[in-house]
Specification:
The protein has about 325 residues and is α/β, with parallel strands linked by helices. The protein contains nine helices and 15 strands. The protein folds into two domains: about 140 residues, Rossmann fold, CATH 3.40.50; about 160 residues, Dihydrodipicolinate Reductase, domain 2 (2-Layer Sandwich).
């Protein structure tokens, strides 16, 4: 079985994420790319380019549509693809609003078509390494997990859907959704949320800083990101009653050796402080799972339900950030 795939955009996510992963999956063939700014034609490698999304919807040879477009277009484009009988892979977040997310999940179920959400960071080496040591009990009962998605991007881009104060814009929707999805995958739903969000580069613009704190029974999860971090600290710092795990940012890893994390724990009554290897990223597993799910060989690991749960917490944190802080 070979499934023909169409990409709904040829921006960064299309070129650097989806196209390479589609090419790596032997049961997929990239058959069409939507490029609104250019005439119909072909990319190197013979992939057909079209300037109109309707051309993709009307093509009976297209089995799967990847909607990797700005957040506000997720619902209408994915909905149209499902109505046209296509399976859909949708960039995160699933939609901007909760109503649209629930509607889209219902439409996919009614159409009998797969709807997968590209929460690929669950397949990152950082996440997989953290999960390995949590599952192994190396940290004991977790007390605190601090998880960063920092960058240094002082300049404002031309992308209104990322920079302006619009619904679904900013780093909390763009990056925070990855951290929230990872947290939910590991721990399920939290009890409470408190949040601080700001636009540091430009007043009254989209969020480019967030510090969000989720409380669970017995532990807390801190999710942080800023666009003014030139010197990267650890990506993950996890502390438990038995040990700690520190995963450095890739920029802090040596270039001539495999990447590692620092584990400080106890084993057999001995204190151990050692470098442990990072799990390799497994991004190719995303589309392998999508094809297996379409073929009925596996459950979909990236379906709309967990994506809706993550979006729920995105909105809960925004609501929490809007509450007035107490004066000291």
């Amino acid at each position: 079985m070979i499934l023909n795939v169409a990409l709904a955009a040829w921006g960064m996510s299309g070129r650097e994420f989806h196209a390479p992963l589609i090419a790596a999956e032997p049961r997929l063939s990239l058959a069409a790319i939507l490029r609104r700014s250019g005439p119909d034609g072909s990319e190197p490698g013979g992939v057909r380019c079209v300037a109109d999304f309707q051309a993709i919807l009307d093509d009976p040879a297209i089995d799967l549509v990847v909607v990797n477009t700005p957040n506000e277009t997720h619902y209408p484009m994915a909905s149209a693809a499902l109505a046209a009988g296509k399976h859909v892979v949708l960039e995160k977040p699933i939609t901007v609003t909760m109503d649209d997310a629930r509607a889209l999940a219902a439409e996919a179920k009614a159409a009998g078509r797969l709807l997968a959400v590209f929460h690929n960071r669950r397949l990152d080496g950082d996440f997989l390494t953290l999960k390995r040591h949590l599952d192994a009990g190396d940290l004991g009962d977790l007390v605190e997990l601090e998880w960063h998605y920092d960058r240094y991007r002082a300049a404002i881009t031309h992308k209104r859907w990322k920079e302006d104060d619009l619904p679904g814009a900013g780093t909390w929707f763009d990056l925070g959704i990855h951290l929230v999805d990872g947290m939910l995958t590991l721990f399920g739903a939290p009890d409470t949320v408190a949040a601080d969000m700001d636009s540091l580069r430009r007043p009254n613009a989209a969020t480019d800083f967030f510090d969000v704190r989720f409380r669970y029974p017995g532990h807390r999860v801190l999710l942080r990101a800023s666009t003014f971090v030139r010197e990267q600290g650890p990506v993950i710092v996890a502390h438990g009653k038995k040990g700690s795990l520190v995963i450095p940012h890739e920029s802090a890893q040596p270039h001539d050796a495999p990447p590692t994390a620092l584990l400080h724990t106890e084993r057999d009554g001995r204190t151990i402080r050692e470098r442990v290897p990072l799990e390799p990223s497994r991004h190719q597993a995303f589309y392998a799972n999508v094809v297996d799910a379409i073929a009925g060989k596996a459950d979909l690991a990236f379906g709309p339900e967990p994506a809706i749960a993550a979006l729920t917490l995105i909105h809960k944190a925004i609501e929490a950030a809007g509450k007035a802080a107490l004066k000291c």
